[in-house]
Every structure is written in C-alpha cells, then in structure tokens.
Amino acid sequence: MKYTIKILDTKEYKAIGIIALMIGVIVLFLSKNFLLGIKVSLTLICVFFIPGYALAKALFPDYGSAEKGIISLFLGIGLFATLAYILGFLNIKAVNFASGLTVFLLGAILMHLDIRNKHKHQA
Amino acid sequence: MILDENNKWTWIILFVIIALGIFMHYKPYEYKLLHPYPTGIQSADANSRVSESEWIAENGQAYYQPSWFDDSKTNIIENDPPIALITSAMISRITGLPAYDSLYFLSVLSIIGVGLVFFLIFWKIFHSIPMGLIAAILLIYPIEKMYHYQITIGMFPHVAELMFLALTVLFFLKYMEDKLIVSLIGLALVFSFAFLSHSPTPTILMVLFSIIILYKIIRKEIPIKHFLILNGIILVLTSLYIGVLLVNYFHIGQANTSGAGLSVSGKLFHDASSNPIKFMTFVNPVFYILLLLGLASIIFYLKNKKYRYIVGMFLFMFCATLLAAYFGVYHDHATDKSRYALYLFAYPIIAMGIYFLVKLVEQISKIKNLSIFVLLALFVLQIIMFNSIPKSSNSLMTQNSYDAYVWARENIPKGNRILCLGCIQFEGLYAHRPIYLPTYETDQNVINQILEVSQNNYTQGIIRSNIVGYSDERMYWDGIKMKTYGATPNVNHSICEFDYVLFKDLGQLTPMIFNIANKMIAKNNTLIYNSNNIAIIRNNFKDGECI
Known about the structure:
By secondary structure, chain A is mainly alpha-helical. Helix content of chain A is 81%, strand content 0%. By secondary structure, chain B is α+β, with helices and mostly antiparallel strands.
C-alpha cells in the first residue's frame, strides 16, 4: 500500500500562525514582562498547541484547519499531561518526543485503517 | 449578514469574546499573570493542590505526595488527579511562573476552552455558528455564581475537567454522527483526559454514553468491537490512576461524611459555605428561566435528534447529582463540587433557547439581522452581569505569611518539623516542611491548652495538634506489596517535640500565642525570624525542657 505523506498544507500553516500569534499577543499583554510573556507563549505553542494540532489532524480528517486549530491547545494539554503521568516523569523533551511518537503512531494506525476513504464512501 | 465560517466578522467576534474573556477573568488579579504570593485563592484545599504542583515541579514525578504532607515520607502514593497539577508544574518549570499563578492561568484557559469547544460543537455538529457564538458568550462569561466560584476558590482540577468534559461531548456527538473509529479513539482519549483531571463527573457521564452505545449495539447500528476498543483505550490510559482510586475506595470508604446529619433538603441544596441554603440561592431565577426556555424550544421546535443528546446529558447529570447526594455516593450532599458540571450542559441549552426565540421573533416581525443585534446585546449584558458577580481578590493568604513560609522553606533544614501557632488551614504547606497545626478552630480544648501553656509555668507545653496535609489513610509500596498508612493522628504533642515553632496573629488568641513565644525566648531558644508580627523560634532543647 502506498501512502503520500503531506505534513501540513498552506491553510494549516496560516491557521497555526494566526492562532500562535493570538496566544502570543494575549499572553504578552497579561505578563507585563516581555521575557516571561515569550516564555509562556512559546511553552503554550511548542509544548501544547503544535502536538495538539497534530493530534487534532489525526482525529479530525474531515475538519478544516480552523476547526482543528480551535481545540488543539486543549488536546495538547491532555496529551502531554497524560503521557507525563503514565511515563512517570516530567522531562519536557522526552514527553514531547513521546507525544510526537504517539501522534505519529496514531496517525499511521488510522491511515492503515483507511479511515479517510471509508468516510468519503459514507459521505 | 450571515455569520458563517467564510465571514471574517465571525472570527473577529470570536477573537473579541476570547480575548475579553481572558482579561475579565484576570480582573480580580489586576490583569497580571505574575503575583508575589498566592493572591485570590479563597479556599484551603486550593493551597494543598498548589503544594502538590510545586512538589511535582521540584521532583519531576507525580506518583507520590509531597514529603512535607506527612513527616518527610516520600513513598506515600498521590491520589489526587494528576492532569492540572502536572500541566501547571510543567509551565512553572519552564517559565518560572509560580504554581499558584500557572494553575490559575490554566483554569482561565480551561474556561475559555469550554466556550470554544461548544462553539465547535454548534458549528460542526449542529451547523449553527450564531448559536455557537451565543453558547461561547454564555460559557466564557458565566452569570451563575457557582460556576465562576470554582475558579475563585481554586478548584483547579475541577475546572480542567470541565474543558475535557466538553471535548468528550464533542467526540461523542461526532461519533454518533459518523460512527467512525477515528471519532471513537478521540472519545476514548478525551474521556481519559477528563477522568485524569477529576474522576467522578466523567464517570457519571460515561454511564450515560455506555447506555446509549450499548442500545445502538443491540440495534446493530454500532459493531460491538467499537465498544471494546473504547473501553480498551480508556483502561490502558487510566489504569494506573484507577488502581490508586480503587485501593483508596475499598479502604477508605465510598463517600466522605461532610454532609452527615443534614436533612434531605439540606443534602440536596447544600451550599459550599457548609450552611444549608435557601432554594433560591441554588436556583438563580434568570438562569433557570432561560434554561426552561431552552428545554421548551428543543422539545417543541427542534426535530434534530442531536439536540436531544445535550438535553439528555443535562437531565441525566441533574438526576445523577441529586440521587448521588441523596444516597451518599460520591459526596454526601450536592456541594458545588458535584453540581457545577450541570452548567456545562445548561448553558448550551440556554443558547439554543435564546437562538430559537430570536428566530421566532425574526419570523413574526420580519426584522432582518435581529440575531446579530441580539448577539451583541447579549455580549454586553453578559459582561455587565459577569462583572456583578462578587469576585474578591482577597486571599486566605497574606504577603507577610507567604514570605515567612518561603523563608522557612529556604532556611529550615529538610525534614525538620515545625509547630505553627496561628496558621490557617493548609497555608503552612508553603513552608515545604512537615508543619503541625492545633485544631483551635474546632476544638475548645485546644484553646484551653493554649491558655494553660501561656499562663502557667510548664517545661513542656502540651497542645493537641495534627500535621497539615491529609488525615485519611494513604497507600504506599513496601517492595511489591501495597500497604496502608494512617496519617499522623490529631493527638497531644509537647511543644518541645518540634524543631521550630512559628508564631502568627490569631485574633483573640494572639496575646497568649506571643506570650508563649516570649517564654521560649527567655528560656534561651533562638529567635531566627521576626518580621511583620510573625516569629520563628528554633527549639534548642529538643525533647527536653524548652519552655
């Protein structure tokens, strides 16, 4: 079976960029401290939002970039904290790697199950 | 003007709702992310959650409770739900934001998340963006005091759970719509996240979902393997925590006794203030009139079965909460802890009611774009009503107390025990040292003991006290065996048993407390901290005659 792997399309890059910018602006305003604001924003974006987007992409093959973007941060929080609890440690890089691996495996399983085609068929 | 996904105004309005929502929730916190001490937290429990999060950030693991919860034991298994604590610990670890601030920040994000998820539900499942915007406004700016109260008193795990419950509803509805295994996997994942945030309410909701799924299996609409996959994933992700919960459940008992002795109405309409409340306090008239309107509109006007799922969830949760309170399962009474989740389903029903009422008026009056005006008016009204909910920035903790605890954390050797005369409830946990507290709030005998020690010549003053942490039984591993451990009981202790004694203001007892301090200083113990009416004395005569 041959798969074409395309990580993100242009619309998705745009959606991720806009949401990341929104997070940054709001957090910077609240933090009243540039360095703290940058740290908190980057944590939200890199640790939660981007892995969360990858998970949303695996779970919502039929939704657009905006739909996935809206809930990515929250999916990312759940994924990260659950894995950190199960793995038993709080090493950011290791848990992020585990998140990435989990999302990749989940995506591969779902592709294997040929969900997209089934969905098209049902539609 | 049609508010759909192609209209840029949809996104501008949504962004304004979110951004203003975040700022409004930060109003009692002076619109600042960072604070010098745990300001705003108005309950005792919240301080223990913060302490657990600080411990996780310090040690990088969440399996064991903080060593200072019980005389420096590091192998007592943690049984509080991990998600909110781990997430805030991680944010603190990377950014340096204190755990009390990162937990609040996470709670605000969660409340915003609930609004966003329901926006998505209305958009993608019910195909109505205006209804979604109304729901988002209602959920992000709650007018019901008890819903907002969760954040005010620092019920951080409960608030995180709400956001994952909303995601659970989204995936359940999506699965009911497409019956795809991808939606089922999503449902299993987000339910597990909700369960690991705070387990009771997701469990109740899953009972309903299981009944519906089993009904569909019997009708051959869903293959049985889907049900097995759902349970399999949930079991894998939550088995570790379920294990801890089951051991505690069978050992400690099924419910706490905080509602014991109440009448039936007291159990069902009990307030967080521990006093049975009047019916109208439990039922906000505006809120419930709107809710009835929503229910009526769904019953009489809606043909779409998916709307009925939301109504079913609300009614099921409502009945389950009251029945659980009546029979003493989960909590013995319907406190804020068990009934706050009802609002998660009530607000979307209210959104439907408002929307269909507007549509009805639009049809009768033939006024175009009425829904846009109603949306804007509702937004302004919600902000005004949300603002009117009392949200004090006062805390149980003061800056001076926090400074003293942090000083103790940095200057008192690990494992040394502190007796605190004047601490309030769980606040002493910020010292990160085993800290004991006399139960003067509930025990007249303890007040008499303090008076005795203050006025008479004792060489070893006796005061009944217990450790600030947990008093119920906890589990620990002994090799491969799990054993139970009864936390240090509330018994008589000599002041001289402790390595340090911390003295603070305590209302009418303050002169007596400081009299004890003066007696200890006169006996050649060392005053090592003295600032803003808070003193810490090192006991130089441990287990001897220190007073």
